[in-house]
From TrEMBL:
Alphabetized InterPro entries for the sequence: Cyclic-di-GMP_PDE-like, EAL_dom, EAL_sf, FIST_C, FIST_domain_N, GGDEF_dom, Nucleotide_cyclase, Rev_trsase/Diguanyl_cyclase
Protein name: EAL domain-containing protein
PROSITE patterns linked to this entry: EAL, GGDEF
Transmembrane portions of the chain: none
Domain GGDEF, residue spans: 448-592
Domain EAL: 603-850
SMART domains, per database record: EAL (SM00052), FIST (SM00897), FIST_C (SM01204), GGDEF (SM00267)
Length: 851
């Protein structure tokens, strides 16, 4: 697609400039025109381009090819190649804002999900500010919206255009739908929150009467002029900001009241926690430059801007600051609004004092392009660094205060101690973040954390080995800075605190009551963005590294508001979810989904039962034989874990994932190893395969027991160690010498569940296994699935070319067996051949050899 814009001081100029112009798919008309003046424009456009979708609105200023215009009208013409448009209009009623929104989007939502639009441009005309409830529908259905409220200073003559008619008190939506359509959005604000948090203790409508139990005017005078009276003009530059029902509210003082209260532009409810907000145009300029550079690399086709009428970001039509930066990507087209619409992870918000944009790309390739660095104007005299310093200092003080209060461990005797030494134990000295002890104190003593995320750098060990500890710690600090910057942007608008839990783990506590699915989505997107970022090593910019993450999320309440986890247990649950994510090769996991496996009471019950089974020697080994595919003779048997619980034989599927998180797992491995040792020593012709996980090699006592086992026994190829590939072997460089050590002692190596995980063929083959065991998921349907049959054939050929034997699991019928025989898979195993047998049943055939 592509877009062009035409500025026309008059309709005659419009007619002249449209001569020879090809019909577009979408027309946006933004004009500094009263409703009567705009009617001829609407009529002409309907005659000139009857097939186009035509929308627009009254706009005090508009943007044409990057220049800001204050007269006539700007026409934006967009041509789509791979997308199509859907559009609708509905009455806007501020008294029934929620229903108005439902009415506007009803035709779109009636379509099947795959046909719904990727993004909507919404324009609304209303004499009063748009009610938040109008966008409830966007939160319910995850709609992505850009646009704004129409407005010229003569409110009575404002309008919106839909096709050939001009409306007042009307809403319009145009949806853009495309299989390969990509859209990017962002919001830039010229404000910064300064100072401590205060509490609104009395308010009535839009009049705020008391803050911290003092007259509101007195609070303004105290902080802005040390108690002296100030003008409303000065106060107007300092809004009060809060987040209410997940919507940011910026209330600007409009008038002093006689009783000491202040009439504000927005209502602030009693109990709201507020901070002063200062509007300063250069504050966010440096922080947004990397965002615009990223946008530049994504090759957008068109950029539409919806900016606040209060922004003075141009001089003599020439853009300044953020508009100028965006113009370096593409010439801008857009309009100024009396309220801008912007969709975050938590629904659509109505912004003030903001610049929003919608960038569209139809190619969907997602490939970055080489782009010249975005040039930022010299801001040596900017006050932004000072404001950032102030706000970050207050943020640090607030977080430290919360930790001190919640920990409740600072005694009166500490008052005589040095302040620095008294607070150091709350912080990580390398990054300045609060530490695990601080988090534990807050979890135990305060009830202000709704969600907790634990992020682990999975490739941290390799970074340490390659670049050293200093570089790894520096990368961790870069990650922490990136997280804080992303989470603190106004497009997110949540309260949070970051902690360093360990060398490679960072925790983020969320203090906003937001639906769990939205927080999970936020951190999933963050994790994906982080893995696509390039981080530089210390003093070596040419060495750019990427970080691989696994994320665990825990929430105190579920989607319905029902208790899910005690706050004191959030760290345990988040860590458990993170481990589950890593084991199952998922980017993120949530504790609410872990509840599907077992309740806490059931977990504790299983732990007790397995402990008793170990004490009573009720951890059993069952054996499933495997056979030579060509001769049909038994080659050996795989030792399978079972437990006798309440007199019944129980599969490990009921308890193994839980037990892996305890020290009982190592004891189970040792018990199975002991049973295999006894059988190997008693039956000299028996071959046994023992399952081990990566966890076993990382457990000191288990590794020591394995080494002692091989010192005592000469297995001479009669013991096969099966390592489960679906658990994602990652530390190849670390595990390889251990495996070679055991192979030199006579063991064979098998990679189990091959094909079930994310196989790294190069590194797996580097382990030089003796056997590849093909997982049942790619074997069980080869009699009906030709693609899987070819996959098994190619894996078998590759393995044999490297001198590796193959073994197929889940041989469950004669057809599957015959196909595997024909493919010359070496060994077969499955219920069709033999079910798992108890130790005595399996060894019965060998008893004659020992008698």
């Amino acid at each position: 697609m592509h877009s062009i814009s035409i500025h026309c001081p008059s309709i005659d100029d419009l007619i002249q400039k449209l001569e020879g112009v090809q019909p577009p798919d979408l027309i946006q008309l933004y004009g500094t025109l009263a409703i009567k003046e705009a009617k001829p424009w609407a009529i002409y456009l309907s005659q000139r381009f009857p097939e186009a979708c035509r929308i627009g609105m009254a706009s005090q200023r508009h943007i044409s090819n990057g220049h800001v215009k204050s007269d006539g009208a700007t026409l934006i013409l967009s041509y789509f190649e791979k997308s199509h448009l859907v559009h609708h209009s509905a009455v806007y009623d501020g008294n029934q804002a929620d229903q108005s929104g439902q009415n506007l989007f009803a035709p779109f939502l009636a379509e099947k999900e795959e046909k719904q639009a990727n993004v909507y441009i919404v324009l609304v005309d209303s004499k009063d500010a748009i009610q938040d409830e109008f966008f409830n529908v966007s939160q319910q259905h995850d709609l992505t919206i850009s646009g704004g409220r129409a407005g010229i200073f003569d409110y009575e003559n404002s309008w919106v255009l839909y096709q050939d008619k001009l409306y007042q008190n009307q809403s319009i939506a145009v949806g853009i739908t495309g299989k390969h359509l990509m859209q990017q959005r962002d919001v830039f604000v010229d404000n910064i929150a300064i100072g401590r948090r205060m509490l609104v203790t009395a308010s009535e409508g839009k009049v705020i009467k008391q803050i911290d139990h003092l007259p509101a005017q007195q609070i303004y005078q105290r902080y802005l002029s040390n108690g002296e009276k100030i003008s409303i003009t000065l106060a107007n530059r300092f809004a009060l900001t809060t987040v209410h029902n997940n919507v940011e509210i910026n209330a600007v003082p409009l008038r002093w009241e006689s009783d000491g209260g202040i009439l504000m532009s927005e209502a602030l409810p009693e109990g709201a926690s507020v901070k002063f907000l200062y509007f300063h145009p250069a504050q966010s300029l440096h922080s947004i430059t990397p965002k615009i550079q990223h946008l530049n690399e994504q090759r957008p086709d068109s950029i539409f801007v919806f900016s606040c009428i209060s922004r003075e970001d141009f001089i003599d039509e020439q853009p300044t600051d953020k508009l100028s930066l965006l113009n370096q990507v593409l010439p801008l087209h857009g309009t100024y609004c009396f309220g801008e619409f912007f969709t975050t992870q938590f629904g659509t918000r109505i912004m003030q004092h903001a610049l929003t944009y919608l960038a569209v790309n139809e190619s969907g390739c997602g490939l970055k392009r080489e782009a010249e660095p975005i040039q930022i104007a010299n801001e040596d005299d900017s006050l932004a660094p000072m404001f950032n310093l102030i706000t970050n200092a207050f943020q640090d003080l607030e977080q430290e205060h919360a930790s001190l209060v919640s920990s409740n461990v600072t005694s009166k005797n500490d008052a005589s101690n040095n302040e620095t030494s008294r607070n150091d134990w709350l912080h990580d000295l390398q990054t300045g973040l609060l530490n695990r002890f601080s988090l534990l104190g807050r979890l135990s003593n305060k009830e202000d954390i709704f969600h907790l995320a634990v992020l682990r750098i999975r490739n941290f060990r390799l970074i340490n080995q390659q670049y050293g500890y200093n570089t790894a710690d520096d990368l961790f600090a870069q990650l922490a800075h990136y997280l804080k910057r992303r989470l603190s942007t106004n497009s997110v608008g949540i309260e949070f605190t970051c902690y360093r839990l360990s060398a490679n783990e960072i925790a983020v506590s969320i203090h906003s009551d937001i639906a769990p699915k939205k927080i999970v989505r936020l951190f999933r997107n963050l994790a994906e963005d982080i893995e696509s970022q390039e981080f530089s090593t210390i003093n070596k910019i040419e060495h750019l590294l990427t970080l691989s993450l696994s994320v665990g999320m825990a929430s105190a309440f579920d989607e319905l508001g029902e208790p899910l986890c005690e706050q004191a247990h959030l760290l345990i649950k988040a860590s458990e979810a993170r481990r589950f994510a890593q084991i199952n090769n998922q980017p993120i996991y949530w504790n609410g989904d872990l509840q599907d496996h077992a309740t806490s009471e059931e977990n504790l019950d299983w732990i007790l039962k397995i402990r008793k089974a170990l004490e009573n020697d009720d951890i059993l080994a069952f054996f499933q034989p495997y056979y030579d595919s060509q001769t049909g003779e038994e080659v050996g048997a795989e030792a399978l874990l079972r437990a006798r619980i309440d007199g019944k034989i129980v599969s490990p599927a009921f308890f193994l994932d839980l037990i892996k998180q305890t020290q009982l797992y190592a004891k189970i491995t040792l018990a199975m190893l002991s049973k295999c040792e006894r059988i190997l020593n008693t039956y000299p012709n028996v071959h046994v395969a023992l399952n081990l996980s990566v966890l076993d090699f990382k457990h000191y006592a288990t590794l020591k027991a394995l080494r002692e086992f091989f010192k005592r026994n000469h297995v001479n190829g009669r013991l096969t160690l099966e390592i489960t590939e679906s658990e994602s072997i990652q530390d190849y460089e670390w595990i390889s010498p251990i495996i070679n050590e055991f192979r030199e002692a006579g063991a064979l190596l098998a990679i189990d569940d091959f094909g079930a995980g994310y196989s790294n063929l190069e590194k797996l083959i580097a382990l030089n296994p003796d056997i590849l065991k093909l997982d049942g998921c790619i074997v069980k349907t080869i009699d009906t699935d030709e693609k899987l049959r070819k996959l098994v054939q190619h894996i078998n050929s590759l393995a044999h070319s490297l001198g590796i034997k193959t073994q197929a699991e889940f041989v469950h019928n004669s057809a599957v067996k015959q196909l595997l025989v024909d493919l010359k898979i070496d060994y077969l195993q499955g219920f069709h051949l033999c079910e798992p047998l108890s130790e005595s049943e399996w060894l019965e055939q060998y008893n004659d050899e020992t008698n």
